[in-house]
Amino acid sequence: MGYETFISPAETLRTRYRKQFPVTERLVYLNHAAVAPLCKPAADAMKRLADDACLYGSLHYDQWLDAYQGLRVAAAALIGARKSEIAIVKNTSEGIATVAAGLQWAPGDKIVAFEEEFPANYLPWKRLEKQGIPVQWLSYRASLDEIDEAARGARLLAISYVQYLSGFRADLEAIGEICARRRVFYFVDAIQGLGHSR
User: Fold this and answer.
1) Strand 135-138 to strand 156-160: parallel, antiparallel, or no bridges (unpaired)?
2) CATH architecture under which domain 92-197 falls
3) % residues pLDDT > 70 (the chain)
C-alpha cells in the first residue's frame, strides 16, 4: 500500500468531525471555552426549534419537551448520572450561580475554591465570602494532601475540570474520593474538558 493511499483511522475521524464545524473553512478557532462555534448538527437543531416557534408558536411544545428529555438522557449517559439529576440551564455561568445561590448556607459552612478559576467559577464563591461564608482559597497546583486538609469541615468544594488559563486538568477521581470521604458537596465545572476527556 502506497503512502498516498493510506489514511489512518485517526485522520478519518478528524476529517469526519472537522466537517461538522463549518467555522474551520474560514478560521483557525482555538478558544472553544467561552463562546465556541457551533457544530452543524447543533446549529441545525437550534434552527429547527427556532423556525418551529416562529411558524407555529407553541403548537409543538410537547415535541420541545421530548427534545429536552432526550438531552437529559444523553447528558446523564455521558456523566454516569440519572436523567432526573440533569438540569438544563442557559450556560455554565447561570448553572454555577444557581448552585451557589441555591444551597442554604448556614453559620459554620465553609467552601473550598481555587484562585485561578474562570470568573464564573470564582465570583459566586467570592460573593458568598462577602456574605460571611468562609472560603478557603487554594491554587489549582495544590497537592491532593492540601486539598484533603482544606476539605476537612467544608460543605462544598468547587473546581474546574480543566483550568481555562493553563489547561491544567484536575484529577477529578482523586478529588472526588476526598470529597466523598469528607462528606463534601463536590462541584465540578466540566465545560472545558467533558466532551473530549470523558
Assistant:
1) unpaired
2) 3-Layer(aba) Sandwich (3.40)
3) 92
